[in-house]
Amino acid sequence: MTMKKLYIYLIALLVAGTTLTADAQAPRIPEASPTQTIIQDFGLGKVTITYSRPSVKGRVIFGGINPYGQVWRTGANAATTITFSENVIVEGHSVPAGTYSLFTIPDKNEWTVILNKTAKQWGAYSYKEADDLLRFTVKPIYLAEKRESFTIQFANVTTSSADMHIVWDHTEISVHLKTDDDAQITANIDELMKGNRKPYYFNAIQYYYENNKDMNKALGWALEAEKAEPKGPWYRLWEARIRLKMGDKAAAIKAAQKGVDLAKASNDEEYVRLNQAVLDQANR
Q1: Which residue among 25, 144, 209, 263 is least enclosed by CB atoms within 10 Å?
Q2: Domain CATH number, residue 229
Q3: Which of 226, 217, 227, 222 is nearest to 241 (CA)?
């Protein structure tokens, strides 16, 4: 390489480095309503919500800056989006996997919740009711404690259900979600339990218990797991819970007491507490 070419090459590198540094250090201004993305594992898939979070800032919110009876973007800036990676059931309605915009129509005594098939849109300015996938109504709840920042969050999450809470100022609404993949999960459990069951006992037992499936099958797995791990208090806990759900209090008490004893022997305070809770429930 000649000196001239080397000089041109070094100048090009310097300019490129200066540009990258300038881009990295470019001044920016924070958004008044910061964007948040939340991801919740749900059944075999996930629920992802992206929304902007305005603050109250001393304003009247519902019936004020968000008039009653008008479609609201459910946040600020771009319309809130919700993505289901698997088919779900939203307030009793089947919803295919996909990404939707989440609109609401606040009112004093009732809110309309909308899933719209046009996911990418700014605010509600181009909203079209004809593109709605689903509409349903829920009752708002008054909160004594004010929530300054608009918030969407999940609560009461289990292997098959969850509640999506939309909260701002003194108002909250709750939307119930259920998975639509029980048949697939059950088939997966059946397949996994054909081989080495040990890694899958806990999740299989828990799923059957929480979803009120075949308790005899779940009990059989718990008893098998106890034989594999005779000093573990955790499967005694599930045996006790299952027997109690089946109405056999005496057997539940026996299993839970054994669980307490095993947990004390291994200094496992958590499972002492959990097994004791079943004992207390069975002795009522």
Answers
A1: 144
A2: 1.25.40.10
A3: 222
- pLDDT, one tens digit per residue, over 139-192 is 999 999 999 999 999 999 998 899 999 999 999 999 999 998 888 999 999 999
CA distance linking residue 261 with residue 277, whole number of Å: 14
Q: What residues contact residue 150 under an 8 Å CB cut-off, 6+ apart? A: 33, 51, 52, 53, 54, 55, 75, 76, 167, 168
Please report which confidence band the pLDDT of residue 28 belongs to, taking 50, 70 and 90 as the band edges.
confident
- Tell me what the mean pLDDT of segment 196-205 comes to: 92
Same domain, 154 and 125: yes
Domain boundary among 122, 151, 179: 179
pLDDT recorded at residue 145: 95
The pLDDT value given to residue 31: 84
* Residue 10 lies inside a defined structural domain of this protein: no
Which residues constitute the domain of residue 87?
35-179
The total of structural domains in the chain comes to: 2
| Cα distance between residue 148 and residue 47, in whole Å | 25
The model's pTM: 0.76
For the cut 70, the answer to whether the pLDDT of residue 8 exceeds it is no
According to DSSP, the residues that pair with 167 across neighbouring strands are 151, 172
Which residues, in sequence order, are CB contacts of 166 under 8 Å at separation 6+? Answer: 74, 104, 151, 152, 172, 173, 174, 175
Q: At residue 151, what is the residue type? A: T
Helix, strand or coil, per DSSP, at residue 45: strand
pLDDT at position 32, please? 85
Q: Sheet holding 111-116: strands in order across? A: 35-42, 45-52, 81-84, 98-105, 111-116, 132-138
In this prediction, residue 24 carries a pLDDT of: 60
Say yes or no: 58 and 169 in one domain: yes
